[in-house]
TrEMBL record:
One of its GO terms (cellular component) is cell outer membrane. It comes from Gelidibacter salicanalis. Residues 1-19 form the signal peptide. The lineage of its organism: Bacteria, Pseudomonadati, Bacteroidota, Flavobacteriia, Flavobacteriales. It is found in: Cell outer membrane. This is OmpA family protein. Residues 514-635 form the OmpA-like domain. Keywords: Cell outer membrane, Membrane, Signal. InterPro entries: 6-blade_b-propeller_TolB-like (IPR011042), Bact_OuterMem_StrucFunc (IPR050330), OMP_bac (IPR006664), OmpA-like (IPR006665), OmpA-like_sf (IPR036737), TPR-like_helical_dom_sf (IPR011990), WD40 (IPR011659). It comes from the Bacteria. It holds the Pfam family OmpA.
């Protein structure tokens, strides 16, 4: 007998825990994290320590930026269960870092990397610098629009550079004129240009053609340009050629790169001159000019450097000559490869390197070296950088738009040119909160802005006129949730686009829970011939609990009514059981027994329509009579 009783009580307990979890889930799915937290924690106290409950508790705290509590619950789940979704490991790592527990976070990140070897967040992580890698890879707070340009081809296209309405770049697209280059089995590179115009805030590109010159492009490589401020001189890179425009080699049979310049004459780049600091035994390439054009920067693998390739500078003298090259030193150059320098109009120095902390291969960096020789380079991070080669950075005078090149997946060819727009595309989400019944403006409504992952990112209170406003990023999905004491929450979905400055309207209509002498909720449904409280009924009854908590002196009475189907006496008993089940649930949520004066069922004695015994009615008409009332006797 004792064994049977134990099994029976255990079954009842399990049923209750399942119901509690379902109710908590319903609140969680509606972003009511505080209520869900309370219910999940009650479930834990009653013995439900499932991975679902523990991780959901972690999510409730994580989405409210409560890292200490989030780490506690995620940790409980991960240390108890081996098959938890790896995404919770990542959230656990984030929570640990937020509270400064970097050692434990790094341990879990190693495990996360083992499980999620293909995950982009860890693909190139080094266990010795895990925090920095994560920051570089994240684009969560970065508002940068990048675009693979329409003139890219299946071949290599890179090095976008604009001057005087023209975009210059290198490409190996002209396959019919050249043999393939052994390095990548693509044709040799030529220099191209096309027109660039702005139309209604968008750039439009003309058709690419060979650079306007009869002598710059040859049967071998030309790439990487820099043009003086007056538009009269162009610097570029070319293979080392002899007088017959054939490849020239050093004693080891290697042909190196050299720097050249040409002058603009009647719209054509002519008078090509080799720069005097070239040599047949090392390469020079990738020219860049200082804003005042008094210095020329370039890349070289000459003897005496710090690594495979270093960045150098020379003075451009007034007589057209050049100083001796100077290595930019260890504040820029490393034992690795430094390449593709560029100097913006504000003298910010950009370059690519594989010698610093990076996401893989070449990354783009910026430095204030030209103003402060003690400064350290800064990795631009995603989306400029990826796990692949990212290089040839160029930024326009507005310091917001420009170009870079990359061989990242998803492009059209081996290297592609991408444009970027770092203008902060922002929109507004605004609205008015009103009483859904009277249309009255509602002040002091708490309005939350929730992002697509369910995290609360901002909270405001409506003004005296019911108004609220949020700043929002472009191209995002949000939920706006309005809450006020004695009202049901209302929520609206908002999806922003790329229209900078757009205002998105999301008015909120909160339904009052108190109407004269009643607490009004949606109908409570019971299964046929049953009186146990279903999850959907619990969800509605939580509104009663909230109102009574907000009014600690409130006393109510409960009435329950049925339709006419079934005998009169049976319906009296059934409705009374339902009324008392409703009362018992409210009391189980911490409301004192004496605050519910009575819970009485009236059966079918107080029908609201014609549907009495023997009258044929629809299901909807019968449903109207199945109802519960919560009368306020004392406030």
């Amino acid at each position: 007998m004792k064994t049977k009783l134990f099994i029976f009580l255990f079954a009842l307990s399990s049923t209750f825990m399942v119901a509690q979890k379902k109710l908590a889930d319903k609140f969680f799915e509606n972003y009511a994290y505080v209520k869900a937290t309370e219910l999940y924690e009650e479930a834990v106290k009653k013995g439900d320590s499932s991975a679902h409950v523990l991780t959901r508790l972690g999510d409730c705290y994580y989405n409210n930026s409560k890292s200490q509590e989030a780490a506690l619950w995620y940790g409980k789940a991960l240390n108890r269960y081996n098959d938890v979704n790896p995404e919770y490991i990542f959230k656990y790592i984030q929570s640990l870092r937020s509270i400064g527990n970097y050692v434990e976070a790094d341990k879990w990140l190693v495990k996360f990397k083992e499980i999620q070897s293909g995950d982009s967040r860890v693909k190139n992580f080094d266990a010795n610098n895990l925090d920095m890698y994560e920051e570089l890879a994240s684009t969560e707070d970065v508002v940068v629009e990048i675009e693979n340009l329409p003139f890219n081809t299946e071949f290599s296209d890179f090095g976008g550079y604009t001057a005087n309405g023209e975009l210059y770049f290198a490409s190996s697209r002209h396959a019919d004129l050249k043999k393939n280059y052994g390095w990548n089995d693509e044709p040799f590179l030529d220099l191209y240009s096309l027109s660039v115009t702005d139309k209604e805030g968008k750039k439009e590109y003309g058709d690419p053609n060979f650079i306007k010159s009869t002598k710059i492009n040859t049967a071998y490589h030309e790439a990487s340009v820099a043009i003086t401020n007056d538009g009269q001189t162009i610097y570029f890179t070319r293979d080392n050629l002899d007088k017959r425009n054939k490849l020239d080699y050093d004693r080891k049979g290697t042909s190196h790169l050299k720097l050249y310049k040409a002058t603009l004459k009647e719209g054509q780049w002519e008078s090509i001159v080799e720069l005097p600091f070239n040599d047949d035994y090392f390469s020079n390439g990738h020219p860049a000019l200082s804003p005042d054009n008094t210095k020329l920067y370039f890349v070289s693998d000459r003897d005496g450097g710090l690594g495979h390739t270093d960045i150098y500078e020379v003075d451009v003298l007034e007589d057209g000559n050049y100083s001796e090259p100077r290595n930019l030193g260890s504040q820029i150059n490393t034992e690795g490869r430094e390449m593709f320098p560029f100097v913006a109009k504000d003298s910010t120095f950009y370059f690519s390197s594989d010698g610093y902390l990076n996401l893989g291969l070449l990354d783009i960096y910026k430095s204030n070296i030209l103003k402060d020789d003690t400064t350290e380079p800064e990795n631009l991070g995603a989306p400029y950088n990826s796990g692949y080669d990212d290089f040839a950075f160029f930024i326009n005078e507005n310091s917001k738009t420009g170009y870079f090149s990359s061989n990242r997946p998803g492009g059209k060819g081996s290297d592609d040119i991408y444009s970027f727009n770092a203008e902060p595309c922002q929109q507004k989400i605004e609205g008015i909160a009103r009483d859904a019944k009277t249309n009255e403006l509602l002040a002091s409504v708490e309005v939350k802005l929730i992002n697509n992952s369910g995290k609360i990112i901002a909270t405001v209170m409506t003004t005296a006129t019911g108004a609220y406003e949020f700043d929002a990023d472009c191209d995002k999905s949000y939920t706006v949730l309005g809450s006020k004491k004695d009202y049901k929450d209302d929520m609206k979905k908002v999806v922003t686009n790329f229209e900078n400055g757009k205002v998105n309207n999301a008015d909120l209509y909160l339904t009052p829970l108190i109407d004269n002498n009643q607490i009004v909720i949606n109908p409570i449904f019971f299964d046929f011939d049953k009186w146990n409280i279903r999850t959907d009924a619990e969800y509605e009854l939580e509104h009663i609990v909230d109102v009574m908590r907000a009014h600690p002196e409130m006393v109510i009475k409960i009435e329950s009514h049925t339709d006419s189907r079934g005998s009169d006496s049976y319906n009296i008993k059934l409705s009374d059981r339902r009324a008392k089940s409703t009362r018992d649930y409210i009391i189980s949520r911490g409301i004192a027994t004496e605050r519910i004066e009575s819970a009485i069922g009236y059966g079918e004695s107080q029908l609201l329509n014609k549907c009495s015994n023997g009258v044929k009615c629809t299901s909807e008409e019968h449903q109207l009579n199945r109802r519960s009332y919560f009368y306020i006797l004392k406030k």
